[in-house]
User: Fold Membrane fusion protein, multidrug efflux system from Bryocella elongata.
Amino acid sequence: MLKRSIIIPVLIAGAAAALLVALGSQWSPFTGTASLPETDDAYIRADQTPLSTRVSGTVRQVYMGDYQTVTKGQLILELEDNDYKAALAETQSALAAANAEYAANQDAKRAADAAVASARSAIAGARDASTAASAGITAVQAEVTHAGSEFQRQQNLLVGKAATQQQYEAALAARDHAAAQLQVQQAEFSRSSTMVATAQSSLAAAEQQRASLNARDAALLAQIEARKAAITIAEVNLGYTKFYAPASGGLGEFHVHPGQLVSPGMPVVELVQSGVWIQANYRETQLGHVRPGDNVDITVDAIAEHTFHGHVAEIAPASGSQFALLPPDNATGNYTKIVQRVPVRIELTPDDQTARLRPGFSAVVKIHTSSDNHGSSSPRESR
Assistant:
């Protein structure tokens, strides 16, 4: 009887030990190849956009309230814009002044072009007059020579009593007239030469003025472009006084109120965009057969009576620990193996309950893996 009481506990302990060994040997294959891997380390996620100010100003009006739903492009908040409207008007006036100055410079260029053309015409006329005067001098010079010779001949004849006093005086008058005509032509040649020099000086001045106007053109055009850029900046700053929803979704709690002075970069409100998904953190040993596109069943703690459906969208390229601020380093010291968690993104199939989901809700996720879809054998049979 005593032996029997000893043998039975020993047999029970041995059977338990054998069972634990068997389970231990099968755990990793089971979790790695299970066709319905499940985890409760899953949460509803959504894109969250913090909205902040781009310019300084006083809050004029807040059009939405905390936790309200907005659509893309809906006006959320407005700042006082009088200063920015005045700045825009000032830059527009500066552009108008720059355009007027540029137009005046074009008028000055046209006037300079007319002055250049006039100077060139004056040079041509003066040169023609100078040429005519030179030809006149040549012609009169021959008359002067002939009148001088005739006067000398009549003077000699008069001394020999071979010519009359009247003939002598006529030759003298002809000589004096030819000399006077030569002086006139020489004066005309001198005047026309002076006119050529004057016209050339006027042409040089007009061309220099035209060149300076061209250079001023470039400066004025650059000034106009600067004024246009200033208008663009003023328009952008004016636009920043109104806050529009960049996407549809729900608003968080407002951090500003009417009458409050805000500065650039100051947080206004958080926008939780529409379109939620699930991040499920699976153990690495559960992902042996999980592939993108696998169907998923989801239950959410807050809506326990409803089962959501979806599919695996992506599997993270690394475990969650690798994205930590200080990734673990197991190269030194004692090592304890810890099963890692790998984030899996799950896209939901919209239904009539999807709108009730909120980022942060806890969920339980069950994936129908490819092995389940192809009717694979049980883990023990496929081992």
